Amino acid sequence: MKTEKHYDAVVIGAGAAGMAAACAVCERGLQVALVDREEHLGGILLQCIHNGFGLHHFKEELTGPEYAGRCIERVLSLPIDIYLETTVVDIAPEVESRTVHAYSGRHGVLEFHARAIVLAMGCRERNRGNIGIPGLRPSGILTAGLAQRLLNIDGYMPGKKVVIVGSGDIGLIMARRLTWTGARVRCVVEILPCPSGLTRNIVQCLQDFSIPLHLSHAVTRIRGTDRVEAVEISPLHNGVPRARKAFTVECDTLLLSVGLIPENELSRRAGIAISPDTNGAEVDHRLQTSVEGIFACGNVLHVHDLVDYVSEEAETCGGNVAAYIHHGRDTRATAPVEAGANLKYVLPNRCAPGETTRLLMRALAAHDRAKLVIQQQGAEVVRRALKHVRPAEMISCSLSERETAALRPDVPVQCTLET
Length: 419
Known about the structure:
By secondary structure, the protein is of the alpha/beta class. It has 9 helices and 26 strands. It folds into 3 domains: 2-124 and 261-331, FAD/NAD(P)-binding domain; 127-258, FAD/NAD(P)-binding domain; 336-418, Immunoglobulin-like (Sandwich), CATH 2.60.40. The longest helix is centred in the last third of the chain and has 21 residues, at 307-327. The chain starts with a strand and ends with a strand.
């Protein structure tokens, strides 16, 4: 039996982004449904029992569950309809009433009709298949996030002698967590010449415990039949493994912390344009996707450094959704924003002349000193000096109304990093 529900907005995903966006919309007097496939509100925060959250958003240091708890309290204090253990399978983006199709063991088949949809599905981890490590398929190979859940939620020790591939933040945090629990972390192997995680995590999780970090190295073979017995690690020269200098490290567990992929299967089904640079939706200055009435925020849009920034972006997105519902689409002409030299990407993908805009971008390589230059057809809009630029740390640049007033619609705005 199919049940139809009507709302002003439907938010898909009940992690930090989804909860913040739902609250921001609801607090502006609109009816909101918050839908998530998991059993509890909170998303990935519930398994992140380490501290370091909330310093920007709540002005105090919290653990992941504490941060989630504060967000959940806010959600429960508002008249938001919550649908847990409910899986969204399709989005039909009709202009008059967008439809979200979902299934739930508790509610059966659901059909949500809404004037706006917020995508906040988060991201997933890359796995062994994504990076192509040769060898057999013994037990003991798992992603860092799965190991985190096994240890922090289910109470299982994933291994005793561990090698971690990738220096992403989850892998670094798990290196410390496993060490505290009694495992021996043999080393962390990073394919890039610089770490992928935040500097504070490199210091607190590796250096404080004397865990070796091998930069410009790769795991080139996994040994073991039933269980991982050892891995072969090779240094890289111009990205190519140097087999003659390979060495073997004995271990019984291999954790993969090799990047995150925004969960955009639903976005693609809805016909939303996906950026090849972020693997997230292309959005304008209102965080609206290429499909009218569908907005995106959080890690489904691009992978953030801190959950605090996710919440801030989602709050902004929720305000934009409410404005769209109350006043309709912003029809002003916009200018495309492009990433130039030394930048991987820039968001949003379009900005509006004469409006305050916050640009977020990520560098391709580490630089101690650099200059961010934003220009349009050779005319310089902004030039800012930057220190300690790192690929793992987002660059944020706010442009005032005065600075964007001279921008011409439909003429590309180029952001470059001079080193």
